[in-house]
Design a protein that fits this description.
mainly alpha; 9 helices; 77% helix; 0% strand; elongated
């Protein structure tokens, strides 16, 4: 795809630039993955928050669907009103994902075919032509685990894939552990897909260059920390809003107190007269 080429060339240049400093292909991939995830963090933040809002809205949406199941027009109207009142954008978790897609595809292509996108004058380009010079914990990151001959040599590759599956499950659990069990078939289907995806990534990792598997693992670990940070930020924001509301409520009660007392005193004076 033509739109991917500029991103792939830029990523290839950045990968070779990082390698000049760390002199390790595997470490270069790790650092590159972290840099890209930091750059797209604002988009990921919006996507994660939008996803969480949609998940939190499911009980109310289910109630509306049950209440207006015989009136689709009124249901759509009530759902739209609910979204507006709670600041929910149904496309909020899709648009950031679409924006990130070119970067992900470009990174995928660079790690799958690095010699096509890394500058020929770069040190990394010449090293990649000799697999023994770019080994990472005994692994040739340019080949998949499926192409390794013996199971003994496959051991580090298999461990890497298992780590990808494990971190993906942890990441998925972060998003779903607070969700109540739902009888909604669509919601159940989404939860099932979420459980199957980590296994799917483990399956495709068996046939993909191991450099991509390092990218998957690094991305998963980064997003685990990232999601924990987002949840912490949201909790702090919610606590601050709660304290602010309690403060306003207390100020209103204090303001109304003297007025009530004054009115009582006036009534007592009238009775004495």
């Amino acid at each position: 795809m033509a739109i991917i080429e500029p991103f792939a060339l830029a990523i290839g240049f950045l990968l070779s630039y990082i390698h000049d400093y760390v002199n390790s292909y595997g470490v270069s991939i790790v650092i590159l993955t972290v840099i890209i995830n930091i750059i797209i963090f604002p988009l990921t933040l919006r996507q994660t928050r939008s996803t969480k809002r949609m998940q939190d809205a499911q009980p109310e949406l289910k109630r509306l669907q049950k209440q207006y199941r015989d009136n689709k027009e009124e249901l759509n109207k009530k759902v739209a009103e609910y979204y507006k009142e709670n600041g929910i954008n149904p496309l909020g978790c899709v648009v950031p994902l679409l924006v990130q897609m070119p970067v992900w595809f470009a990174l995928f292509r660079v790690l799958r075919e690095p010699l096509l996108f890394i500058p020929k004058e770069a040190t990394l380009f010449s090293k990649l032509q000799d697999p023994l010079s770019v080994l990472f914990y005994g692994m040739d990151l340019q080949v998949p685990a499926s192409q390794i001959n013996t199971w003994t040599e496959r051991a580090p590759y298999i461990l890497l894939i298992l780590l990808v599956v494990g971190t993906a499950l942890i990441q998925q659990n972060q998003l779903t552990k607070k969700q109540p069990k739902s009888n909604n078939p669509q919601q159940q289907q989404m939860q099932m897909i979420g459980k199957v995806m980590p296994l799917f990534f483990g399956f495709i990792s068996w046939t993909l260059p191991s450099g991509l598997v390092v990218y998957f693992l690094t991305g998963n670990i980064f997003r685990i920390g990232q999601q924990a940070l987002i949840v912490k930020l949201d909790e702090n924001q919610a606590n601050e809003e709660k304290k602010e509301n309690e403060k306003k409520k207390t100020e209103e009660e204090n303001t109304e107190g003297p007025i009530i007392d004054d009115s009582r005193k006036k009534r007592k004076k009238r009775r004495r007269k």
